[in-house]
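stage 2 :: seqdesign
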C-alpha cells in the first residue's frame, strides 16, 4: 500500500458534540448555547405530546424572547414518515437549525431530519433513557423494520438534571441498562476483531468499557429523583456517545445484547424500553461470553432495572423467540451469537441466567 493509500486508510472523521451542558435549570441556557454556536434565528423544535409541556414550550418561548423565529412540531413516532414531515416543514420554512426536545423518539426524528437537510441539530433530552441523546445514530422505523441510521452528532446537548430527575425513574434505569450493555458490546467487538479482523479502536473500546464499569461500581448511588444520579447517568451516556463517534459506528455500545433487544422489538407485542431490553440482553450475552453475568444482574437489580422477562412485562416465549432470531438482526456484525442459538440452547441461557423461570 503506498503512502497516500495508507493515509486514506487511516483517515477518520470523528463528529462530537461541540457543547455539552448538564445541570439544574440549564434548559434556560439553551438560548445561550444557540448564541455560542451562532444559531441565532429560524429554529424548528421537534418535541413530543407530553414533553412539549415539560420542556418544548419553555425552549420555544425562551428562543422567541431572545428574538428568534421559532416553529415547533409535535412528532408522534420515530418513523421515516415523521422525518419526512419534519424535513418538509424545515425546508418550507427555511430553518437554519433544529432542536430535538424530549425523549428518544423526538430526538431521533430531529437528528435525522437535520442531517438530511444539512443543518445543525441540538439535543435537549427530557429523559436519560439511552445514549441516543448524544450519539450520531438515529433509530427510525420504516414500516415494521427499525433501522439504525448514521446521522450527524448533535452540535450541542443540553441536559437539565431537574427535568430529567422528575421524569419517571424507569427511564433513568433504562439509561443505565443501555450503558451497562457496553460490557458485552465491547467483548463482541474484540471477538469480531480477533476472528474476522474487524477494525477495532482501543480508545473507543476502553472508553466504552470504563463507562459501564464506573456505573456498575456506582450502582448503589443511582436513586429516584436525585439530580446527582442523573448527572452520573448523563455523563455516562455522553461518554458512550463519544466512544461511538471515535469508532465511527455503534460497535462500542451495540453488540449481541442490542441484537437481542432489536429482535424483541420485532416479536414482543408490547416491547419494554430499549435500555431495559439491552440490560437483560447483557445478562444473557455475558453468560455466553463466559463472563460474570451475576455481576451484571446484581448491578441492574440494585438500580431497580428489570432482570427478568416478567419484570419487563414480556412473556417467556418471546424471550426465547428473540434469542433465536437475534443473530439475523445484523448478520454483518459478528458477535458471540455467531450463526445463532438453537432453540434448546436459547432455553438453557434464559433459564441459567434466571431471565425466564
Ligand atoms: N439513536 C439512538 O442511538 C437510539 C435510539 N433509540 C430509539 O429511541 C426510542 C426510545 O426512546 P426512549 O426515550 O427510550 O422512549 P420514548 O421516546 O418512547 O419515551 C418514552 C416515554 O417517556 C416519556 N417522557 C420522556 N421524558 C419525560 C419526562 N421528563 N417526564 C415524563 N415523561 C417523559 C415520553 O413522553 C414517552 O411517553 C426508540 O424509537 C428507539 O428506537 C434507542 C436507543 C438508541
Ligand atoms: O442503541 C444504540 C447504542 O446504545 C445504537 O445501537 P444500534 O446501532 O444497535 O441502533
Ligand atoms: Zn442502546
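stage 2 :: out
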Amino acid at each position: 500500500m503506498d503512502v497516500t493509500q495508507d493515509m486514506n486508510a487511516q483517515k477518520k472523521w470523528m463528529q462530537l458534540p461541540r457543547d455539552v451542558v448538564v445541570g439544574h435549570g440549564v434548559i434556560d441556557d439553551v438560548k445561550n448555547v444557540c448564541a455560542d454556536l451562532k444559531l441565532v434565528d429560524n429554529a424548528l423544535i421537534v418535541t413530543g405530546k407530553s414533553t412539549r409541556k415539560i420542556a418544548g414550550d419553555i425552549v420555544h418561548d425562551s428562543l422567541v424572547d431572545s428574538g428568534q423565529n421559532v416553529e415547533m412540531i409535535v412528532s408522534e413516532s420515530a418513523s421515516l414518515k415523521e422525518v419526512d414531515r419534519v424535513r418538509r416543514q424545515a425546508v418550507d420554512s427555511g430553518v437554519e437549525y433544529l432542536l430535538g426536545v424530549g425523549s428518544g423518539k423526538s430526538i431521533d426524528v430531529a437528528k435525522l431530519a437535520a442531517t438530511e437537510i444539512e443543518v445543525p441539530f441540538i439535543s435537549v433530552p427530557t429523559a436519560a433513557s439511552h445514549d441516543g441523546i448524544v450519539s450520531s445514530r438515529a433509530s427510525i422505523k420504516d414500516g415494521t423494520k427499525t433501522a439504525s441510521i448514521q446521522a450527524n452528532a448533535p452540535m450541542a446537548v443540553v441536559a437539565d438534571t431537574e427535568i430529567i430527575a422528575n421524569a419517571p425513574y424507569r427511564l433513568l434505569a433504562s439509561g443505565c441498562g443501555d450503558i451497562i450493555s457496553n460490557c458485552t458490546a465491547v467483548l463482541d467487538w474484540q471477538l469480531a476483531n480477533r476472528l474476522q479482523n474487524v477494525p477495532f479502536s482501543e480508545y473507543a473500546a476502553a472508553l466504552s468499557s470504563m463507562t459501564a464499569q464506573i456505573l456498575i461500581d456506582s450502582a448503589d448511588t443511582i436513586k429516584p429523583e436525585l439530580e446527582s444520579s442523573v448527572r452520573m447517568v448523563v455523563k455516562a451516556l455522553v461518554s458512550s456517545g463519544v466512544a461511538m463517534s471515535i469508532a465511527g459506528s455503534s460497535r462500542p455500545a451495540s453488540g449481541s445484547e442490542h441484537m437481542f433487544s432489536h429482535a424483541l422489538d420485532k416479536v414482543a407485542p408490547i416491547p419494554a424500553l430499549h435500555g431495559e431490553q439491552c440490560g437483560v440482553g447483557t445478562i444473557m450475552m455475558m453468560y455466553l461470553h463466559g463472563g460474570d453475568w451475576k455481576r451484571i444482574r446484581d448491578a441492574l437489580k440494585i438500580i431497580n432495572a428489570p432482570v427478568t422477562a416478567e419484570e419487563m412485562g414480556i412473556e417467556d416465549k418471546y424471550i426465547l423467540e428473540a434469542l433465536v432470531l437475534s443473530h439475523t438482526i445484523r448478520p454483518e456484525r459478528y458477535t458471540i451469537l455467531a450463526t445463532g442459538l438453537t432453540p434448546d440452547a436459547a432455553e438453557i441461557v434464559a433459564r441459567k441466567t434466571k431471565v425466564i423461570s
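stage 3 :: structure notes
- The pocket of 1,3-dihydroxyacetonephosphate (ligand 2) is lined by residues 130-131, 137, 139, 148, 178, 250, 253-254, 258 (CB under 6 Å).
- The two ends are 55 Å apart (CA to CA).
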